[in-house]
Amino acid sequence: MANSLLSLYLSLGSPASARRLLADIPRPDAVTWNTLLRACLRLGLLPAACRLFDEMPERDVVSYNSMVAGYVAEGDLAGARNLFDGMARRDVVTWNSMISGYARHGDMENARKMFDVMPERDVVSWNSMLDGYAQAGDVEMARLVFDGMPKRSIVSWNVILALYAKLRDWRECLGLFDVMIAEGNTVPNEKTFVSVLTACANLGDLEKGRWVHDLVRERWDRLVPDVLLLTTLLTMYAKCGVMETAREIFNSMGEKSVPSWNSMIIGYGLHGQSEKALELFLEMERDGPRPNETTFICVLSSCAHGGLVLEGWWCFDRMVRFYSIEPKSEHFGCMMDLLGRAGLLEQSENLIENLQGNVSEALWGILMSASQTQNNIKLGEFVGKKLIEMRPTEVGPYILLSNIYAAEGRWDGVEKVRKVMEEKGVEKDAGLSLVGSREGGHFINESGASAPRNDVMLCMLGEMSVHMKQPSEGSNCRKRSPSAP
């Protein structure tokens, strides 16, 4: 009875009451000592716990387990291992503490060694190994552990589902969830639904997402529907374009996080409701949390999709001046997309100049796309040369620039690109040949093998530019294959 009261006082954070009670216990037993030991460790007082451990007249496996766990919690794996090695008797809890400690600190080699030699394993042992490999991003080993588990808990399923979601392997995530439901041995919880709904959102699988939503409703009374789960749910509907349902969930939330607002803003923007996106941003400024840099990516992207040029400039200026958020490449990319769609290419160029040369390839790509949409060959030529400067030994930028010349019938430019490629040995390394003609510039794979994916994408971009200029003509960029004419 006294030990139970002591534990209660300590758990409630009442050391004075615990001290008075301890004074009335004539002969503290092992349970009393262990209760005090755990209390010290729970408060992070490892040095005090060590002194108490040294003074204990009798130590049992519970005492040792508490200390091993305490060392692990403090990141002192050497201290934990030293104590572990000195134990006369260990149980599965002792082994699990060490395995968990190694796994948590990324030492999967030692974790594996302990796991392999431990005399008895439980689901916690397996979960520790699974989580360790998952944290390390080692999906192959994580899956081996998961598939080899004699028994799985909800923790096991959540770890593997979250891993596939983290790796953006959405289909594998949903496939495993189907297996989990079919087996019927484990009841999904909030963490399960977050991973699965994230997969549905990124695949745009509305039918599956609605089915998962129904499962959430069925278990609503047993769930703790926190902000993360509700945000993931509304994000799924927003990405799938069902904005009315997304807004209903958003409005029902007692507490809304910044990601909740961001998901709604970008949802409106991507699905043709840019003005609603801007209205929601203004509402967020007025009644919600402080916007972050991601918020401005969402609102600027929404302005770009809706052609809201002045509003986009206002948001960009507000981000910098009022919120003191330093623009990143994503923000500049949104602005260049906004200006490019509106045909304001000169302003896009000025924006790039303000970056003081620190321009990523992605930003140049956005400007290139805008130049082709607006049929600005001069700008396209300028950007093409910049891309060559960034990737002088890769064939893709040369393909793009040559097709720009071909679209204008500038065969001298096509020939010049060919010569530069020959001088730099690019054609030989890439295995591609440029064939210039009055009908256009063709890039043919001499070996019949597939060209690198980036180069093919750039090649297709160049082909599209030719089609925009000469819609009645055939393709100007192709690979030689057995089926090609």
Automatic annotation (TrEMBL):
Gene Ontology BP term (one): system development
Q: Does the keyword Acyltransferase apply?
A: no
Q: Which UniProt keywords apply?
A: Repeat, Transit peptide
So which domain of life are we looking at? Eukaryota
- Please give the Gene3D superfamilies that the UniProt record associates with this protein: Tetratricopeptide repeat domain
What GO MF terms are annotated?
Answer: RNA binding
> Record's InterPro entries?
E_motif, PPR_At4g14850-like_plant, PPR_rpt, TPR-like_helical_dom_sf
Q: Where are the PPR repeats?
A: 29-63, 91-125, 153-187, 257-291
Question: What PANTHER family does this protein's entry cite?
Answer: PENTATRICOPEPTIDE REPEAT-CONTAINING PROTEIN, REPEAT-LIKE SUPERFAMILY PROTEIN, PUTATIVE-RELATED
Q: Specify the protein name.
A: Pentacotripeptide-repeat region of PRORP domain-containing protein
> What organism does the UniProt record list as the source?
Oryza barthii
